[in-house]
């Protein structure tokens, strides 16, 4: 997976420049404030190029972001270098695997956004990533993550999608062709990405496969069991409503056992 994301980072911010990181970060922060009003330190599992971390730091949180990709982290550090000092000093980044990370620190909240949890395609991967969150949380701390919601995926069905983006240097066309493996609750999202330089017309093609796990509520009951988690809630992403068959992206908030 690391090699995929090293290449992906080259055009990641361009492809997702219309993503409302500010609204998403505020949504997460609202949940943190409600459950852990004195929270100050956040661990982000799968921080990417640091956009969510930046917005949370601007809200006053200290955030440590972890990602597997050195290229993603380089871009996160570049982003940090351009921030005001009072924001930048609340941010730090390191390379690591969300399944095996053990940095010896305890946090008030652990977050994992943009479907990082759904990239944990096997039962063991899911269990390991959630264990990482538990190990790094204080008693009563919060684990917040979004994921592909199983009932919506199986109802709507994955379909071919094309996205086109560009800036003054390149044009990017991304074609996503999914293959659903219902017996494994996984979708192989096969990407063909075409990057054209505006000055020369040179065309580069990149092919990737992202295996995505969709999750059902019964699985969450097992994964967020009472031996480590006191309770959890699930919402449709960016709302406080229960997810339904139209809620491809869902959001879980779990409290660490006291």
Description:
This protein has 258 residues and is α/β, with parallel strands linked by helices. Helix content is 31%, strand content 36%. Strands 1, 2, 3, 4, 5, 6, 7, 8, 9, 10 and 11 form an 11-stranded mixed β-sheet that branches. Helix 6 links the parallel strand 4 and strand 5. Helix 1 runs parallel beside helix 4 and helix 2 packs across helix 3. 34% of the residues are buried.
Shape, per Cα inertia axes: globular
The structural class is: alpha/beta
Q: Would you tell me the overall average pLDDT?
A: 93
Share of helix, binned:
25-40%
| Total E-strand runs | 11
Largest sheet: 11 strands, mixed
In N-to-C order, the SSE pattern is: HHEHEHHEEHEHEEEEHEE
Cα distance spanning the termini? 34 Å
C-alpha-based Rg, rounded = 18 Å
- List segments where confidence is low: pLDDT < 50 over at least 5 consecutive residues: none
Work out the strand percent.
35-45%
Number of helices: 8
Task: Write a short abstract of this structure.
With 258 residues, the chain is an alpha/beta fold.
How are the SSEs placed, and which strands pair?
Layout: H1 2-15, H2 21-35, E1 41-45, H3 51-58, E2 62-67, H4 70-81, H5 85-88, E3 91-95, E4 107-112, H6 123-135, E5 137-149, H7 150-156, E6 161-166, E7 170-181, E8 186-197, E9 203-215, H8 217-223, E10 229-236, E11 249-256
Parallel strand pairs: 1-2, 1-4, 2-3, 4-5, 5-9
Antiparallel strand pairs: 5-11, 6-7, 7-8, 8-9, 10-11
Helix pairs in contact: 1-4, 2-3
